[in-house]
Specification:
Layout: E1 11-13, E2 16-24, H1 26-30, E3 44-50, E4 52-54, E5 59-61, H2 74-78, H3 81-88, E6 102-108, E7 114-116, E8 133-140, E9 145-150, H4 156-165, E10 172-176, E11 181-185, E12 191-193, E13 197-203, E14 210-213, H5 226-232, E15 245-246, E16 258-265, E17 270-276, E18 281-284, E19 291-297, E20 300-302, E21 314-317, E22 324-328, E23 333-339, E24 354-355
Antiparallel strand pairs: 1-21, 2-3, 3-6, 4-5, 6-13, 7-14, 8-11, 8-13, 9-10, 9-12, 11-15, 16-17, 17-23, 18-22, 18-24, 19-21, 19-23, 20-22
Length: about 350
């Protein structure tokens, strides 16, 4: 691979759309023109905003949609040593030299299955990649709920029985959900996203899911994996579940302001909400590792891009770059910022930006 621009500029990515039986139409509406492979009646449950999964039978990597690298996949860029260093900096790549992150928007018109992802350690740890994830609620119906964790004192055998007789909800911990909620789901946690929610999901790069119960859906394409889920599931004090964090998405952003609020820190990524007021301008310093910016509301100009980023668009800020500045475009903007860790152990090395 030759003639790649180093240092890199910001990489604007296009989404991959996923049909899901529980999906809705919001992703069609918000990302019109990007779903030519799907009919308007197909429910789209997920938009993968940043992906570089390498499966046994498939590879799914998001594409750069603007600039000198137009049409190149994220994975393609990582195959070049110099470009990989410029992009990831001190962050090690994932397995098979992949980008170590997956970012999605989920549109849950109906409830998702009650499920478990492979855990990281213990007797049930296995070859499947573990999956730790953060949900950040963007939209919620009045009665929307999330399910996270099993009630204290419930045994694995009781979970198995309830999964088979349809009473599993009785032992799940349930929470009401509202926009601005940040919900951490460690690997091994039994969980489900309820109906009426649109969430941003930031996760380690894995697409392995074990379904315990699927709301009595009779869909042969969605089999249950009760034994695998039970083997991977954490119970009792093994469930390390922090309080649900909430931030105000409706509050005003002061003119020219630029603030950042931490939502979740982990060894694999750190997620923050950046609120940028109208007429704000800032520079983005190199920090030794890449950052991924997903616009939640408003729009944002970043130098090196030909047009502003709009809601639900994603851009990668490389670890090493030639200098990047930004400004809001026609009003305030809110951005979900995911910082990758560096090998020196610092997740965020520099302040979020310097006002100019």
């Amino acid at each position: 691979m030759t003639n790649l621009p180093v240092p890199l500029g910001p990489l604007r990515l296009g989404p991959l759309f996923k049909h899901r039986t529980w999906g809705g139409s919001r992703l069609h509406t918000m990302m019109s023109g990007e779903h030519a492979a799907h009919g308007e009646q197909d429910p789209i449950g997920e938009a993968w905003l940043l992906s570089d999964l390498r499966g046994r039978d498939s590879a799914e990597s998001t594409l750069v949609t603007a600039g000198p690298l137009l049409g190149r996949s994220l994975h393609d860029l990582l195959l070049d040593d110099e470009t990989r260093r410029a992009l990831l900096g001190r962050t090690p790549p994932g397995n098979d030299a992949t980008f170590p992150l997956l970012v999605k928007i989920l549109d849950a018109r109906e409830s998702l299955s009650v499920q478990v992802h492979p855990r990281r350690s213990g007797p049930a740890a296995e070859a499947a990649a573990p999956k730790d994830e953060l949900w950040f609620v963007l939209e919620a119906s009045e009665d929307a709920r999330v399910y996270r964790g099993i009630r204290d004192g419930v045994t694995s055998s009781e979970v198995a029985r309830r999964a088979r007789d349809g009473t599993l909800l009785e032992v799940l911990v349930s929470h009401s959900a509202r926009p601005g909620d940040a919900i951490w789901i460690p690997s091994g946690t039994c969980h489900a996203l309820g109906a009426g929610l649109v969430v941003a999901e930031v996760q380690t790069p894995s697409d392995t899911t074990y379904r315990l119960w699927d709301w009595n859906r009779a869909d042969p394409a969605r089999p249950l994996h009760i034994d695998s889920a039970l083997a991977a599931m954490s119970l009792g004090p093994e469930q390390l579940l922090p309080e649900i964090r909430h931030v105000d998405l409706d509050g005003p952003c002061a003119l020219g302001s630029d603030s950042i609020e931490l939502l979740q820190s982990s060894p694999w990524f750190e997620v923050s909400l950046r609120s940028i007021g109208d007429d704000a301008r800032a520079t983005i310093g190199s920090r030794g590792a890449a950052s991924v910016w997903t616009i939640l509301s408003g729009s944002l100009w970043i130098n090196g891009l030909m047009k502003p980023l709009d809601a639900w668009e994603t851009v990668v800020i490389p670890a090493e770059h030639g200098g990047i500045s930004m400004r809001t475009h026609e009003g305030a903007a809110r951005v979900l910022v995911t910082d990758l860790p560096d090998s020196l152990g610092n997740v965020r090395e520099f302040a979020p930006g310097r006002m100019t």
